[in-house]
Specification:
Structural class: alpha+beta
Radius of gyration: 19 Å
CATH class: Alpha Beta
CATH topology: Nuclear Transport Factor 2, Chain: A
Number of helices: 3
Strand content: 35-45%
Distance between the termini: 64 Å
Number of domains: 1
Length: 151
């Protein structure tokens, strides 16, 4: 009896770990399609990572918003926006902060900004649904800003 209970617990733990491990790999792949697609100017990789209803936002001084849709982000990728960053400066640190069922939160540290991605599992595919991003202080000038002014 005790052996059966232990066996069930071990199998359940192994299955849970396997699913989480597979999900983590898929989430990382989605995230790398997003950031590497940007740097490569590869619109196909970018599109593959995004939900069609993506909302990407940044909040700047005086409550000004920068808002992008999936279509806009794909078009900017296709025009080569990320290719302007030299390979040696292309930072792409990916940290999965949390996974719960079909939802995940991921932090991406890029060359000039930090993204917080909300990713959802839809029909066995992980897609980026929301992005909140912020420019790194040492990159304000690249974006035509002196500093970030908070209210």
């Amino acid at each position: 009896m005790k052996f059966s209970i232990i066996l069930v617990l071990v199998l359940n733990t192994t299955l849970l770990f396997a699913q989480t491990s597979a999900d983590s790999a898929a989430i990382k792949e989605t995230t790398l399609n997003y950031i590497e697609g940007w740097y490569e100017g590869n619109a196909e990789r970018m599109a593959k990572s995004l939900h069609p209803k993506l909302a990407k936002r940044a909040v700047f001084a005086d409550d000004q918003f920068s808002e992008q849709t999936a279509d806009i982000l794909i078009q900017r990728t296709e025009r080569g926006g990320g290719k302007k960053t030299p390979k040696a400066q292309q930072q792409k640190e990916v940290t999965i902060l949390d996974i719960f069922e079909g939802s995940a939160v991921v932090k991406v540290v890029a060359s000039d900004w930090v993204d917080y991605l909300q990713i959802a599992k839809l029909k066995d595919q992980w897609l980026i649904v929301n992005v909140l991003w912020e420019i790194k202080p040492d990159s304000y000038q690249k974006f035509g800003m002196k500093t970030k002014v908070l209210n």
